[in-house]
Write a structure and sequence with these properties.
single chain; Rossmann fold; alpha/beta; 9 helices; Dihydrodipicolinate Reductase, domain 2; about 30% helix
Length: about 350
């Protein structure tokens, strides 16, 4: 297991984490602590045990205390989706850099207002798109960059689960920004946009499938490209939820089952940098078409993933030495398609982005 010096380097950026629910506790706090160049200075939470795992961090119940602290360089927002925009605006007004968990905001108008405030303040504002550093996505990205599959005809991206019971939590409520599309859609959309760029149109089907569901718990979204379709899918009633990617091109196919292991490791308390961190034991399958009509099928091990690279990019952007994990244009693009998909589903129409 990698260990960090308990005395922060002079170049370490002090971060305040606002929100210590599942996302803050499982993802952000351990990733901040494991990424060189940043340190967890303050936790903003009303949970009694919020500081137990991080005794070096200050614990505040009121975010105003954190935002007014001159020692804090940046704020990480891991609160319910409907609060993202307001907290981001407060942090930017206080002169802090901002990293917001996905979705960035609950609508495009809010997203534009936050990015405009960041530009006015001269501060970095980005989105926690950690799944750009999933092992399977990095593997697929390399395949496409190398042209191994040829011109792509079909892209299928699944993030299915089997959770038949509706839980009493804000993510499954009827609040703005709740539902499966705003939970997983930002990741699947961002990955597709990274691979293929802007589509021509979108067709979305968002449903409430479970008894008592108060927000969508299923989506099937199709991005329209001139000669290709990208299918983004997630459901909560999928017992056989193994498939992650299926990509078919003129020269071959790539199929990958199983999720990136980093979330499971974090959930189990395994710290980033531990032996085997980011490694996926389940290889993908690459099938290449031969000129004689036959096909060659081979195992393709996944590249190691590392969510710490998201925080490293955030730190580099603050220091002016690199790009943020998601640029302002990329954050707004994802929000635009998220919002348009909701309209497409409601109208039952294929929609184009103005």
């Amino acid at each position: 297991m990698e260990c960090r010096d308990t005395v922060p380097a002079m170049t370490d950026l002090n971060l305040a984490l606002i929100g210590y629910g599942y996302v803050g506790r499982v993802f952000h706090a351990p990733l901040i602590e494991a990424t060189p160049g940043v340190r967890l200075h303050t936790l903003v939470s009303r949970q009694a045990d919020a500081g137990a795992a991080y005794p070096q961090a200050l614990v505040r119940e009121d975010r105003a205390q954190a935002l007014s602290d001159p020692a804090i360089d940046a704020v990480v927002i891991a609160t319910p989706n409907g609060t993202h925009a307001q907290i981001a605006l407060e942090a930017l007004a206080a002169g802090k850099h901002v990293l917001v968990d996905k979705p960035f905001t609950v609508d495009l108008a809010q997203a534009r207002a936050v990015m405009a405030a960041a530009a006015d303040a001269g501060r970095v504002c980005s989105v926690f798109q950690n799944r750009r550093w999933d092992s399977d996505f990095l593997t697929l990205q390399q395949l496409l960059d190398q042209g191994v599959l040829g011109e792509i005809a079909e892209f299928h991206s699944h993030f299915d689960r089997h959770r038949p019971q509706v839980r009493d939590r804000w993510r499954e409520s009827d609040a703005p920004g709740a539902g499966l599309w705003f939970d997983l859609g930002p990741h699947l959309l961002d990955q597709a946009l990274q691979l293929f760029g802007r589509p021509q149109a979108i067709a979305a089907d968002l449903l409430r499938q479970r008894e008592g569901a108060r927000s969508d718990d299923y989506f099937h979204v199709v991005l329209h490209y001139p000669r290709m379709r990208a299918h983004l899918h997630a459901g909560t009633l999928v017992a056989d939820a193994g498939r992650r990617f299926a990509v078919h091109g003129r020269q071959g196919s790539f199929v990958k089952d199983g999720l990136d292991t980093q979330e499971a490791m974090l959930r189990d308390g395994i710290l980033p940098g531990a032996p085997g961190w980011g490694e996926d034991p389940e290889a993908g399958w690459l099938t290449l078409a031969c000129d004689d009509g036959s096909a060659q099928r081979q195992r393709l091990p996944s590249q190691p993933g590392d969510y710490r690279r998201c925080y490293a990019a955030f730190a580099a952007a603050i220091l002016g030495t690199g790009a943020p994990p998601a640029t302002a244009a990329q954050a707004l693009e994802v929000m635009a398609w998220l919002e348009l998909a909701v309209q497409s589903s409601a109208r039952g129409q294929v929609m184009t982005l103005d």
